[in-house]
Amino acid sequence: MAERKVYIDYNATTPIRDEVKSLMIEDLSIYGNASSLHASGREARTKVEEARANVAKLIGAAAGEIIFTSGGSESNNTVFNSMGRLAKEAKGPVPRNEIITTSIEHPCVLNSAQYLKDTGLKVVFLPVDKYGKIDMEAYKNALNARTLFVSVMAANNEIGTIEDIAQISVLAKKAGAWVHTDATQAAGKIPVNVKEMGVDYLTLSGHKIYGPKGIGALFVKKGAPLYPLINGGHQEDGLRAGTYNNLGILGFGKAAELALRDVEEYGKKMNSLRLRLRDGFLANIPDIHMNGHPQDVLPNTLDVSFPGAEGEAILLSLDLKGIEASTGSACASGSLDPSHVLMATGIGPELAHGSIRFSMGWGITKEDVDYIIEVLPPIIKRLRSMSTLTNAAYTKKTEN
Fold it and tell me: Is residue 108 among the annotated active site residues?
């Protein structure tokens, strides 16, 4: 058992903030079904609507444009399911039945897009540059009179690269397409405003902003088409059936309120810690490769490849020292395949296999960062000494 524990995997999930936890404990007594008309139901519904307003404020939306879901994956699937139905119903000499997304999306978007492709729709998976920015020329060339829908994540969950959603939206709107962004990783870390972004749909998740798991939201701009993924009752204006998850919704609402209040402070603190960690690695570990954009990046995210060392071995070695990081997306952690995000940036399987994502949050201190800087160099040195691939070979790949 390590003497010290440093959790630095906040992009995978965050702990519930004390203020959120206190509210949820207090509201355990609010047991009424928010769809019921009696006093207990009305009390629950009032709390749900207060939470909805707070979630809407986080992204500059109207409360009526927020639909509660079970999380980011459901929100994304709901949008893609809706677009699939619209595409199949499209008629006319030039039917709108083509979809554009990127090669570095979260698996729930990639798999949803692939499903639509398997059903016969044309889906374009845009390439990205070495920093994870989408190829704008390829995007412009992909847009046409048949384009129905464009989905580009606001910020990447692995390398932290931030996309220019406003510019992407302007081009999509000129082509007459609907626009969606998965802002699961962006919200609460950087300012997010649906009006400035120009999007029609936006995905959020409670457990990424220090709220509970199992609750998320989908922003749907007034007038944008949507079909329910889950059919049944009348909840959420008939767009998402199921008894309201009172406790999850109330916790999500409080987390959203705090995230909006603290986003500027969060950005400054996390960026300072990220740069401290980056500079510490550069000064103490030779031949490393920084992944993601050098400037347009989430303030809390640092993804690094360590040539000559396997990511899983690094991760286990860190864990023995009490440091909990990640080799990439938590949703893909069961796979031995190299990160699809890193492969899309062109670094190759060797560097992709040797990557670690350090994602910071409110619980991280300068002392924690310094501890990681102290612990990691000897781990990398030891693993490299055991590697069957020479550092020179890796260094050459990095330079190329």
Answer: no
Tens of pLDDT along 317-361?
Answer: 999 999 999 986 445 455 567 899 999 999 999 899 999 999 999
Contact 305, 291 (CB under 8 A): yes
Q: In sequence order, what are the residues at sequence separation of 6 or more whose Cβ sits closer than 8 angstroms to the Cβ of residue 113?
A: 80, 99, 101, 105, 123, 125, 151
For 362, residues 6+ apart whose C-beta sits below 8 A from its C-beta are 14, 17, 210, 266
pLDDT digits (tens, 9 = 90+) for 228-282: 999 998 899 889 999 999 999 999 999 999 999 999 999 999 999 999 999 999 9
pTM beyond 0.90: the answer is yes
Annotated active-site residue in 290, 331, 383, 389: 331
Query: Cα(82)–Cα(48) distance, rounded to whole angstroms?
Result: 25
Is-contact 191 155, C-beta < 8 A? Answer: no
The 10 Å Cβ neighbour count of residue 395 is 15
- 10 Å Cβ neighbour count for 29? 8
φ, ψ of residue 282 to 5 degrees: the values are -60, -35
Angle in degrees, 0-180, between the axes of helices 246-284 and 366-386, rounded to the nearest 10: 60
Q: Which amino acid is at 205?
A: S
The residues near 116 (Cβ < 8 Å, ≥ 6 apart) are 80, 83, 84, 87, 99, 123
Angle at 163 between CA 68 and CA 364, to 5 degrees: 70
